[in-house]
């Protein structure tokens, strides 16, 4: 049944069935129909997520600007105006036995990616200190492969301790399908957040990878939560999935316990099975972000890989359309964004930078 929203002299909102509205029309002329977007936004402002079905109805019924404007109201109310920044370093590259169709580091694909075992200590510390000096909040070592093996985990823990000694960075890790014991070692070394992307929805995942399962990922996420870590888990859009798959991803990541949902846009890499995958439009990317905000109102939605190809105008629309986090600097096997330019972009779109941020070359 359609509803009207009526605002009284104390600015309290009430909803009445349309059949009753004639009784109240004389109370206040400042009333208008309470449509679906209004209702879902009001719930999200209270931290109540939309269902995937509700978000799909929004997708089919509203313009991009309507969705983005409403999503940004939710973002500002639930997450505030300080941009959440993070950076990563490719701590082990190539030689991955998994067959993920999007990935340049898989041994199943011929991409010419650089291969090395463990990043040299000096190189890692130089990178970490540089990001620290720029005021980046979070920093993660990311390794290729199904998981870091037991004989290597202690070495990475040692590297984390050295990074912690030299920086104030909030330490994160992305090291594959680790066990609870291995995750505990990382936590003891100073790692506070674990990253394990679900990549796409559970229903679409088998189309993209067959060497491990969605449940393998969820098991790792549960183990990370059990040892007291926060969890970052999102995925890649533009891999042939539907909008419903993307919204299911956001819902499943939130339900799994993720506090941060990175959103990567596929950059097709030559030599992978997705090298000829058509690029999704900028509007579709922006719509995805806005709709995810309603599905996950209290999560950090993090702009990650793939945004370098986007126009300045649409990037700004997304930052004013529900997004509140960003991965900055170089990425894994593709180029990232200039840190100084990113900070200027964030401030231009109304965000506040952390006090420690240094905008310099």
Polypeptide structure, described:
The strands form two sheets. A nine-stranded parallel beta sheet has the order 8-7-6-5-4-12-11-10-9, with helices on one face. The protein has a three-stranded antiparallel beta sheet with strand order 2-1-3. Helix content is 37%, strand content 16%. Strand 10 (260-265), helix 9 and strand 11 (300-303) form a beta-alpha-beta unit. The chain has helices spanning 36-45, 52-61, 64-79, 121-133, 150-166, 180-188, 214-226, 243-256, 282-295, 312-319, 339-348; strands at 3-7, 13-17, 31-34, 84-92, 138-143, 170-174, 193-195, 230-232, 235-237, 260-265, 300-303, 325-327. It is an alpha/beta fold. Mean pLDDT is 88; it is low at 1-27 and 331-335. The protein contains eleven helices and twelve strands.
Look at the structure and give the mean pLDDT. Answer: 88
Helix-strand string: EEEHHHEHEHEHEHEEHEHEHEH
Please give the order of strands in the largest beta sheet.
Answer: 8-7-6-5-4-12-11-10-9
C-alpha end-to-end distance: 57 Å
Q: What is the percent of helical residues? A: 25-40%
**Fraction in beta strands:** 15-25%
Count of beta strands: 12
Contiguous uncertain segments of 5+ residues? 1-27, 331-335
Q: Which structural class best describes the helix and strand composition?
A: alpha/beta
How would a crystallographer describe the biggest sheet? 9 strands, parallel
- How many whole angstroms does the radius of gyration measure? 22 Å
